[in-house]
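User: Second chain of the day. Same drill as before.
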Amino acid sequence: MNVGKTLIRTLMIPDPSTLNPNDPLAEAIRKVNEFGVGRVIVGKEKVVGLVTTRDLLELIVQECPEGCPENIMKDVLYAPVKNHMVCSPSVAYENDLALDIINVMVSHDYGSMPVVDKAYAPKGIVTEREFLLLYQDLPKTHKVKSFATSRVATIDSGIRLEEAVSLMIRRGFRRLPVVDSEGKVIGIITATDAIKAFAKFIEKKNPSFFFGKKVSEVMKYPVLSISPETYVNDAAKELLDKKKGSFMILDENGKVSGIITERDLLIALHHMLHMQAMKTGE
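Assistant: Same format as last time:
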């Protein structure tokens, strides 16, 4: 079976969450938080843009680096989505092949792509996570250690949430391991956790749900870890089963020695599918 020829329509999340270009950013934050996909398509009849968790968090820390006065917060929350969306995003069509779209996502560092019909109407969205399903039809040939990131940035549990978000934005990370004074991993903070906290701030109209909150109050624990000797196929299955975006690789002292993420597994899949195509001559 040539897994790379799987049609996108069989992998995509159908009936995606959408916004109108003039909808307020507050609605984008609500939808990103509620639907848990990390991005929202702009354009109900024709795709014109995309708003991601990263876009929203980048705006928040840019406009409110040390807290957010009410007047500035209103300007941020009620600004139209069209002012901050990624315009004319790359899209996939329902009958595109999986390998073709993986090529695009890996080469351009995309975490997702809207899926459209011939009229450019939104029909679905495909993220890194959906492609991990393809591993079930591939032989076990590569291990986590070949694709894991070994240089991992960490943060102290006492750091404020907005500082952690700023670091994620600057370094292009979606998650950061949280360590204690001895450098042992005690939790993980993700962009999703941050947007949930900000959505709570909006709902309750209480800045303390985001600004000034310590990472230790928001982080998830215990941290899920994996052996570097695990096959990437099994790692992908575990991420899907546990509905997580990464696994830590820990040494014997509980310190982080690596991380394997959905992104890393997409890159591994990209490599394996190209190897398969070369062997079959397709």
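The mean pLDDT is 93.

User: Great, on to the next one.
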